[in-house]
Amino acid sequence: MRRLIGPAAGILLLLATDGCYSLQPLPPETKIEVGSVFAFDITDAGRVALGGVMGPEIAQIEGRVAGVANEEFDIAVTRVGLLRGGEQVWKGERIHVMSEYVSRRYQRQFSKGRTVVASTVGAAVVVYLVTRSILGAGTGDLGKTPSDTAHSQRRPARP
What we know:
The protein has helices at 2-18, 44-54, 112-132, and strands at 21-26, 37-42, 58-69, 72-82, 87-98, 102-110. The protein is an alpha+beta fold. It folds into 2 domains: 1-20 and 111-137; 22-110, SH3 type barrels (Roll). A hairpin with a 2-residue loop joins strand 3 (58-69) and strand 4 (72-82). Helix 1 (2-18) packs antiparallel against helix 3 (112-132). The model has no long low-confidence stretch (mean pLDDT 80).
């Protein structure tokens, strides 16, 4: 059981510190803050303009805003949402997006409700695993150890 306490505490800590985030829509006049994570819905004109760099089916770009100048956003992209529902994960590649290519803006915000639910479910799973000993910690060998010789019976040969 002691072997499970460390991993269980790690899982709970991860759930509590990482939390759950959601994208919340922003009014068009909201100022975009450098360093924050935003998502931008892309217009048809934006798909045409960015298609050579990002692909023709981009619907949404998510990433950390690295700079804003002259109505142009410099974004370190972390995710691209596609028109038909797929996603592409990016690793911070920088893309310049003109504000006229953006139809809607979203900001990534911490969600207390989701975090409470995720932490509660995580804690319940950890408690279940610890109490059921299904991770191999077990309670040890409760039976007696068999000897190293086999039990055999000798029968006399019949004439």
